[in-house]
Amino acid sequence: AMASRVSSKGKGKAGRGPEDGSTARCVKEWSTWTMKKAKVIAHYGFIPLIIVIGMNSEPKPHLSQLLSPV
Amino acid sequence: MGSSVSHAATPPPSIPPPPQHAVGLAGVLPPKSEEKSERKVNWLNLPCPVPFEEIQREALMSLKPELFEGLRFDFTKGLNQKFSLSHSVFMGSMEVPSQSSDTIKVPTAHYEFGANFLDPKLMLVGRVLTDGRLNARVKCDLTDNLTLKINAQLTNEPHFSQGMFNFDYKGKDYRSQFQIGNNAFYGANYIQSVSPHLSLGSEVFWLGHQRKSGVGFAARYDTDKMVATGQVASTGIVALSYVQKVSEKVSLASDFMYNLMTRDVTSSFGYDYILRQCRLRGKFDSAGCVAAYLEERLNMGVNFILSAEINHPKKDYKFGFGMTVGE
Protein backbone atom coordinates (compact mmCIF):
# COMPACT_ATOMS: atom_id res chain seq x y z
CA ALA A 1 0.00 0.00 0.00
CA MET A 2 2.86 2.37 0.84
CA ALA A 3 4.56 1.73 -2.48
CA SER A 4 1.44 2.33 -4.51
CA ARG A 5 0.71 5.52 -2.67
CA VAL A 6 4.21 6.78 -3.31
CA SER A 7 4.05 5.94 -7.00
CA SER A 8 0.71 7.64 -7.51
CA LYS A 9 1.92 10.76 -5.70
CA GLY A 10 2.36 12.74 -8.89
CA LYS A 11 -0.97 11.75 -10.33
CA GLY A 12 -3.26 12.99 -7.60
CA LYS A 13 -4.59 11.04 -4.69
CA ALA A 14 -7.43 8.67 -5.39
CA GLY A 15 -10.27 8.62 -2.91
CA ARG A 16 -9.78 12.16 -1.59
CA GLY A 17 -12.02 15.08 -2.50
CA PRO A 18 -11.13 16.59 -5.87
CA GLU A 19 -10.29 20.03 -4.37
CA ASP A 20 -7.86 18.69 -1.80
CA GLY A 21 -6.10 16.63 -4.43
CA SER A 22 -5.69 19.36 -7.00
CA THR A 23 -4.49 22.08 -4.60
CA ALA A 24 -1.99 19.74 -3.00
CA ARG A 25 -0.79 18.71 -6.42
CA CYS A 26 -0.54 22.35 -7.55
CA VAL A 27 1.43 23.32 -4.49
CA LYS A 28 3.76 20.40 -4.99
CA GLU A 29 4.31 21.07 -8.67
CA TRP A 30 4.80 24.78 -8.03
CA SER A 31 7.32 24.16 -5.27
CA THR A 32 9.23 21.71 -7.47
CA TRP A 33 9.27 24.30 -10.28
CA THR A 34 10.57 27.02 -7.94
CA MET A 35 13.24 24.72 -6.54
CA LYS A 36 14.44 23.90 -10.04
CA LYS A 37 14.54 27.57 -11.04
CA ALA A 38 16.22 28.52 -7.78
CA LYS A 39 18.88 25.88 -8.35
CA VAL A 40 19.62 27.18 -11.84
CA ILE A 41 19.74 30.79 -10.60
CA ALA A 42 22.06 29.83 -7.76
CA HIS A 43 24.27 27.80 -10.06
CA TYR A 44 24.81 30.62 -12.53
CA GLY A 45 24.44 33.60 -10.28
CA PHE A 46 26.31 32.79 -7.08
CA ILE A 47 29.83 33.64 -8.22
CA PRO A 48 28.71 36.83 -10.04
CA LEU A 49 26.84 37.78 -6.86
CA ILE A 50 30.01 37.44 -4.79
CA ILE A 51 31.96 39.47 -7.34
CA VAL A 52 29.35 42.24 -7.37
CA ILE A 53 29.21 42.40 -3.57
CA GLY A 54 33.00 42.36 -3.38
CA MET A 55 33.53 45.06 -5.99
CA ASN A 56 31.11 47.30 -4.10
CA SER A 57 32.70 46.83 -0.70
CA GLU A 58 35.01 49.47 0.74
CA PRO A 59 37.74 50.23 -0.37
CA LYS A 60 36.38 49.76 -3.89
CA PRO A 61 38.81 47.75 -6.00
CA HIS A 62 39.35 48.67 -9.62
CA LEU A 63 37.93 46.59 -12.45
CA SER A 64 41.43 46.00 -13.85
CA GLN A 65 42.42 44.33 -10.58
CA LEU A 66 39.73 41.78 -11.20
CA LEU A 67 41.20 40.64 -14.49
CA SER A 68 44.94 41.05 -14.08
CA PRO A 69 46.90 38.17 -12.59
CA VAL A 70 49.09 40.27 -10.34
CA MET B 1 26.06 33.06 45.33
CA GLY B 2 24.66 29.97 46.99
CA SER B 3 25.91 27.56 44.32
CA SER B 4 29.55 28.51 44.75
CA VAL B 5 29.49 27.71 48.46
CA SER B 6 28.20 24.18 47.97
CA HIS B 7 30.58 23.31 45.11
CA ALA B 8 33.80 25.05 46.01
CA ALA B 9 36.70 22.92 47.19
CA THR B 10 38.17 25.75 49.22
CA PRO B 11 36.33 28.63 50.85
CA PRO B 12 36.18 31.56 48.45
CA PRO B 13 39.06 33.87 49.23
CA SER B 14 38.16 37.52 49.32
CA ILE B 15 41.77 38.39 50.17
CA PRO B 16 44.78 36.33 49.04
CA PRO B 17 45.38 33.50 51.55
CA PRO B 18 48.40 34.04 53.83
CA PRO B 19 51.47 32.29 52.38
CA GLN B 20 52.92 29.32 54.25
CA HIS B 21 56.58 30.34 54.27
CA ALA B 22 58.48 33.32 55.68
CA VAL B 23 56.18 36.14 56.55
CA GLY B 24 58.15 39.27 55.69
CA LEU B 25 59.28 38.56 52.12
CA ALA B 26 56.29 36.45 51.16
CA GLY B 27 53.96 39.25 52.04
CA VAL B 28 55.26 41.39 49.17
CA LEU B 29 55.54 38.63 46.61
CA PRO B 30 52.59 38.12 44.22
CA PRO B 31 50.29 35.21 45.10
CA LYS B 32 51.29 31.82 43.68
CA SER B 33 49.83 30.87 40.30
CA GLU B 34 48.60 27.51 41.63
CA GLU B 35 45.68 29.45 43.05
CA LYS B 36 44.20 29.42 39.55
CA SER B 37 43.49 25.70 39.62
CA GLU B 38 41.65 25.98 42.93
CA ARG B 39 39.51 28.89 41.82
CA LYS B 40 35.90 28.23 42.60
CA VAL B 41 33.70 27.10 39.75
CA ASN B 42 30.99 29.54 38.84
CA TRP B 43 28.31 27.13 37.73
CA LEU B 44 26.17 29.91 36.37
CA ASN B 45 28.89 31.25 34.14
CA LEU B 46 30.15 28.30 32.12
CA PRO B 47 31.93 28.88 28.83
CA CYS B 48 30.17 28.38 25.54
CA PRO B 49 30.94 24.96 24.11
CA VAL B 50 32.37 24.30 20.66
CA PRO B 51 29.79 23.64 17.95
CA PHE B 52 28.56 20.05 17.80
CA GLU B 53 30.08 19.31 14.41
CA GLU B 54 33.46 20.60 15.59
CA ILE B 55 33.56 18.49 18.68
CA GLN B 56 36.49 16.48 17.32
CA ARG B 57 38.17 19.35 15.52
CA GLU B 58 41.60 19.07 17.14
CA ALA B 59 41.79 15.41 16.28
CA LEU B 60 40.55 16.00 12.75
CA MET B 61 43.03 18.81 12.15
CA SER B 62 45.94 16.66 13.21
CA LEU B 63 44.89 13.31 11.81
CA LYS B 64 43.12 14.19 8.60
CA PRO B 65 45.10 16.65 6.52
CA GLU B 66 44.01 17.08 2.90
CA LEU B 67 46.19 14.43 1.34
CA PHE B 68 46.28 14.46 -2.43
CA GLU B 69 48.06 12.81 -5.32
CA GLY B 70 49.54 14.87 -8.10
CA LEU B 71 50.20 18.52 -8.58
CA ARG B 72 48.32 21.26 -6.82
CA PHE B 73 48.72 24.96 -7.30
CA ASP B 74 46.59 27.55 -5.52
CA PHE B 75 46.80 31.23 -6.07
CA THR B 76 44.76 33.64 -3.98
CA LYS B 77 44.68 37.26 -4.91
CA GLY B 78 43.19 39.75 -2.51
CA LEU B 79 41.51 42.76 -4.00
CA ASN B 80 40.72 44.34 -0.68
CA GLN B 81 40.42 43.34 2.95
CA LYS B 82 37.22 41.42 2.45
CA PHE B 83 37.18 40.31 -1.17
CA SER B 84 39.57 37.92 -2.89
CA LEU B 85 39.69 35.74 -5.94
CA SER B 86 41.37 32.37 -6.14
CA HIS B 87 42.68 30.29 -9.00
CA SER B 88 43.49 26.68 -8.43
CA VAL B 89 44.97 24.02 -10.72
CA PHE B 90 45.05 20.33 -9.98
CA MET B 91 46.56 17.57 -12.10
CA GLY B 92 46.67 14.09 -10.74
CA SER B 93 44.68 11.06 -9.81
CA MET B 94 41.52 11.09 -7.85
CA GLU B 95 40.17 8.03 -6.22
CA VAL B 96 36.81 6.77 -7.30
CA PRO B 97 34.92 4.84 -4.64
CA SER B 98 34.55 1.25 -5.75
CA GLN B 99 32.68 -1.74 -4.44
CA SER B 100 35.61 -4.11 -4.53
CA SER B 101 38.66 -3.65 -2.39
CA ASP B 102 40.77 -2.42 -5.34
CA THR B 103 41.31 1.28 -5.55
CA ILE B 104 40.31 2.81 -8.83
CA LYS B 105 42.17 5.95 -9.72
CA VAL B 106 41.06 8.26 -12.44
CA PRO B 107 43.52 10.79 -13.84
CA THR B 108 41.91 14.20 -13.69
CA ALA B 109 42.94 17.74 -14.29
CA HIS B 110 40.86 20.74 -13.45
CA TYR B 111 40.98 24.44 -12.97
CA GLU B 112 38.92 25.99 -10.25
CA PHE B 113 37.98 29.62 -9.98
CA GLY B 114 36.85 30.95 -6.68
CA ALA B 115 35.60 34.15 -5.14
CA ASN B 116 35.54 34.87 -1.43
CA PHE B 117 33.86 37.64 0.44
CA LEU B 118 34.67 37.67 4.15
CA ASP B 119 32.93 40.11 6.40
CA PRO B 120 32.44 39.70 10.16
CA LYS B 121 28.72 39.29 9.55
CA LEU B 122 28.59 37.71 6.13
CA MET B 123 30.85 35.18 4.51
CA LEU B 124 30.39 34.06 0.91
CA VAL B 125 32.69 31.49 -0.64
CA GLY B 126 32.13 30.13 -4.11
CA ARG B 127 34.24 27.76 -6.20
CA VAL B 128 33.45 26.73 -9.74
CA LEU B 129 35.24 23.98 -11.66
CA THR B 130 35.80 23.59 -15.36
CA ASP B 131 33.11 20.93 -15.57
CA GLY B 132 30.51 23.29 -14.19
CA ARG B 133 30.32 22.09 -10.62
CA LEU B 134 29.76 24.83 -8.06
CA ASN B 135 30.70 24.64 -4.40
CA ALA B 136 28.99 27.36 -2.45
CA ARG B 137 29.23 28.27 1.21
CA VAL B 138 27.35 31.06 2.88
CA LYS B 139 27.52 32.08 6.51
CA CYS B 140 25.33 34.93 7.62
CA ASP B 141 24.85 36.31 11.14
CA LEU B 142 21.17 37.09 11.23
CA THR B 143 21.35 38.35 14.81
CA ASP B 144 24.04 38.26 17.50
CA ASN B 145 23.21 34.71 18.39
CA LEU B 146 21.53 33.26 15.31
CA THR B 147 23.61 32.25 12.31
CA LEU B 148 22.49 30.85 8.99
CA LYS B 149 24.90 28.61 7.12
CA ILE B 150 24.30 27.25 3.66
CA ASN B 151 26.48 24.61 2.05
CA ALA B 152 25.76 23.47 -1.49
CA GLN B 153 27.34 21.47 -4.31
CA LEU B 154 25.50 22.14 -7.54
CA THR B 155 26.18 20.16 -10.67
CA ASN B 156 24.94 20.22 -14.21
CA GLU B 157 23.81 16.63 -14.02
CA PRO B 158 20.32 16.38 -12.65
CA HIS B 159 19.73 14.80 -9.25
CA PHE B 160 23.36 15.03 -8.21
CA SER B 161 23.21 18.39 -6.49
CA GLN B 162 23.29 18.64 -2.73
CA GLY B 163 22.49 21.43 -0.38
CA MET B 164 22.19 21.94 3.34
CA PHE B 165 20.76 24.81 5.37
CA ASN B 166 21.88 25.15 8.99
CA PHE B 167 20.41 27.46 11.57
CA ASP B 168 22.71 27.84 14.57
CA TYR B 169 21.67 29.40 17.81
CA LYS B 170 24.35 30.24 20.34
CA GLY B 171 23.22 30.58 23.93
CA LYS B 172 25.20 31.51 27.01
CA ASP B 173 26.51 28.03 27.70
CA TYR B 174 24.85 25.98 25.01
CA ARG B 175 24.52 25.79 21.27
CA SER B 176 21.77 24.33 19.18
CA GLN B 177 21.51 23.74 15.46
CA PHE B 178 18.76 22.81 13.08
CA GLN B 179 19.58 21.42 9.64
CA ILE B 180 17.52 21.02 6.50
CA GLY B 181 19.05 19.25 3.54
CA ASN B 182 18.03 17.98 0.14
CA ASN B 183 16.49 14.53 -0.13
CA ALA B 184 14.31 15.62 2.80
CA PHE B 185 17.09 15.48 5.37
CA TYR B 186 16.28 17.04 8.71
CA GLY B 187 18.65 17.17 11.62
CA ALA B 188 19.01 18.91 14.94
CA ASN B 189 21.71 18.93 17.53
CA TYR B 190 22.28 20.47 20.91
CA ILE B 191 25.39 20.80 23.04
CA GLN B 192 25.61 22.08 26.59
CA SER B 193 28.51 22.91 28.90
CA VAL B 194 28.04 21.06 32.16
CA SER B 195 31.32 22.08 33.73
CA PRO B 196 34.18 24.39 32.75
CA HIS B 197 35.82 21.47 30.97
CA LEU B 198 33.05 19.06 30.08
CA SER B 199 30.33 19.49 27.51
CA LEU B 200 27.69 17.01 26.44
CA GLY B 201 25.65 17.02 23.29
CA SER B 202 23.21 15.00 21.29
CA GLU B 203 21.84 14.96 17.78
CA VAL B 204 18.93 13.50 15.88
CA PHE B 205 18.46 13.24 12.16
CA TRP B 206 15.80 12.01 9.79
CA LEU B 207 16.21 11.06 6.16
CA GLY B 208 12.87 11.50 4.48
CA HIS B 209 13.34 9.56 1.28
CA GLN B 210 14.78 6.48 2.93
CA ARG B 211 12.70 6.78 6.09
CA LYS B 212 15.78 6.42 8.26
CA SER B 213 16.36 8.23 11.49
CA GLY B 214 19.15 8.26 14.00
CA VAL B 215 20.17 9.56 17.37
CA GLY B 216 23.65 10.28 18.60
CA PHE B 217 25.35 11.42 21.79
CA ALA B 218 28.69 13.11 22.22
CA ALA B 219 30.87 14.25 25.07
CA ARG B 220 33.93 16.44 25.08
CA TYR B 221 36.37 17.02 27.89
CA ASP B 222 39.03 19.61 27.30
CA THR B 223 41.71 21.35 29.31
CA ASP B 224 44.65 23.49 28.23
CA LYS B 225 46.70 20.39 27.65
CA MET B 226 44.36 17.79 26.27
CA VAL B 227 41.06 17.16 24.57
CA ALA B 228 39.14 13.91 24.82
CA THR B 229 35.93 13.27 22.94
CA GLY B 230 33.54 10.40 22.55
CA GLN B 231 30.62 9.93 20.20
CA VAL B 232 28.03 7.21 19.94
CA ALA B 233 25.35 7.02 17.28
CA SER B 234 22.39 4.75 16.69
CA THR B 235 23.80 3.97 13.26
CA GLY B 236 26.14 1.76 15.24
CA ILE B 237 29.25 3.93 15.26
CA VAL B 238 31.38 4.60 18.28
CA ALA B 239 34.13 7.18 17.84
CA LEU B 240 36.64 8.24 20.46
CA SER B 241 39.51 10.65 20.13
CA TYR B 242 42.25 12.00 22.33
CA VAL B 243 44.62 14.87 21.64
CA GLN B 244 47.48 15.79 23.93
CA LYS B 245 49.25 19.06 23.56
CA VAL B 246 52.76 18.10 24.52
CA SER B 247 54.18 21.57 24.05
CA GLU B 248 53.45 24.79 22.19
CA LYS B 249 54.76 23.25 19.01
CA VAL B 250 53.84 19.60 19.29
CA SER B 251 50.53 17.80 19.61
CA LEU B 252 49.87 14.11 19.55
CA ALA B 253 46.51 12.77 18.54
CA SER B 254 44.81 9.44 18.38
CA ASP B 255 41.41 8.25 17.39
CA PHE B 256 39.41 5.09 17.45
CA MET B 257 36.31 4.20 15.48
CA TYR B 258 34.21 1.10 15.81
CA ASN B 259 31.32 0.25 13.51
CA LEU B 260 28.96 -2.14 15.27
CA MET B 261 27.16 -3.15 12.08
CA THR B 262 30.16 -4.11 10.00
CA ARG B 263 32.45 -4.91 12.94
CA ASP B 264 35.09 -2.59 11.49
CA VAL B 265 37.67 -1.14 13.79
CA THR B 266 39.99 1.67 12.78
CA SER B 267 42.48 3.34 14.99
CA SER B 268 45.05 5.93 14.10
CA PHE B 269 47.85 7.79 15.81
CA GLY B 270 49.36 11.00 14.62
CA TYR B 271 51.53 13.94 15.44
CA ASP B 272 51.30 17.58 14.54
CA TYR B 273 54.39 19.75 14.66
CA ILE B 274 53.68 23.45 14.26
CA LEU B 275 57.06 25.08 13.83
CA ARG B 276 58.00 28.57 12.80
CA GLN B 277 58.48 27.87 9.11
CA CYS B 278 56.57 24.69 8.59
CA ARG B 279 53.80 22.47 9.76
CA LEU B 280 54.33 18.74 9.65
CA ARG B 281 51.56 16.26 10.28
CA GLY B 282 52.02 12.55 10.17
CA LYS B 283 49.95 9.55 11.10
CA PHE B 284 49.75 5.83 10.90
CA ASP B 285 46.69 3.71 11.35
CA SER B 286 45.55 0.20 11.98
CA ALA B 287 44.70 -0.39 8.31
CA GLY B 288 48.40 -0.26 7.53
CA CYS B 289 48.33 3.22 6.11
CA VAL B 290 51.10 5.74 6.80
CA ALA B 291 50.72 9.34 5.77
CA ALA B 292 52.51 12.65 6.12
CA TYR B 293 51.72 16.18 5.08
CA LEU B 294 54.21 19.02 5.10
CA GLU B 295 53.53 22.70 4.58
CA GLU B 296 56.67 24.74 4.38
CA ARG B 297 56.65 28.50 4.33
CA LEU B 298 59.17 29.58 1.75
CA ASN B 299 58.40 33.24 1.83
CA MET B 300 55.66 35.59 2.92
CA GLY B 301 52.50 34.10 1.47
CA VAL B 302 54.28 31.32 -0.46
CA ASN B 303 53.86 27.82 0.86
CA PHE B 304 55.27 24.59 -0.48
CA ILE B 305 53.24 21.46 0.17
CA LEU B 306 54.26 17.81 0.14
CA SER B 307 51.77 15.04 0.69
CA ALA B 308 52.43 11.33 0.99
CA GLU B 309 50.18 8.42 1.75
CA ILE B 310 51.34 4.83 1.66
CA ASN B 311 48.80 2.06 2.03
CA HIS B 312 50.81 -1.09 2.53
CA PRO B 313 48.11 -3.77 2.37
CA LYS B 314 46.50 -2.34 -0.76
CA LYS B 315 49.86 -1.34 -2.27
CA ASP B 316 48.51 2.11 -3.00
CA TYR B 317 51.17 4.83 -3.03
CA LYS B 318 50.12 8.44 -3.32
CA PHE B 319 52.58 11.28 -3.50
CA GLY B 320 51.71 14.86 -4.21
CA PHE B 321 53.39 18.21 -4.28
CA GLY B 322 52.10 21.70 -4.63
CA MET B 323 52.40 25.35 -3.98
CA THR B 324 50.07 27.89 -2.40
CA VAL B 325 50.54 31.54 -3.17
CA GLY B 326 48.62 34.19 -1.33
CA GLU B 327 46.98 34.11 2.06
Automatic annotation (TrEMBL), chain A:
The keyword Cell division does not apply. It is a single-pass membrane protein. PANTHER family: MITOCHONDRIAL IMPORT RECEPTOR SUBUNIT TOM7. Its main location: mitochondrion. GO terms for cellular component: mitochondrial outer membrane translocase complex. The chain crosses the membrane at residues 40-57. Pfam families: Tom7. It is found in: Mitochondrion outer membrane. Residues 1-25 are annotated as: Disordered. This is Mitochondrial import receptor subunit TOM7-1. Belongs to the Tom7 family. The keyword Cell membrane does not apply. GO terms for biological process: protein import into mitochondrial matrix. Keywords: Membrane, Mitochondrion, Mitochondrion outer membrane, Protein transport, Receptor, Transmembrane, Transmembrane helix, Transport.
Automatic annotation (TrEMBL), chain B:
One of its GO terms (molecular function) is porin activity. Keywords: Acetylation, Ion transport, Membrane, Mitochondrion, Mitochondrion outer membrane, Porin, Protein transport, Receptor, Transmembrane, Transmembrane beta strand, Transport. Residues 1-23 are annotated as: Disordered. Pfam families: Porin_3. GO terms for cellular component: mitochondrial outer membrane; pore complex. Gene3D superfamilies: Porin. Belongs to the Tom40 family. This is Mitochondrial import receptor subunit TOM40-1.
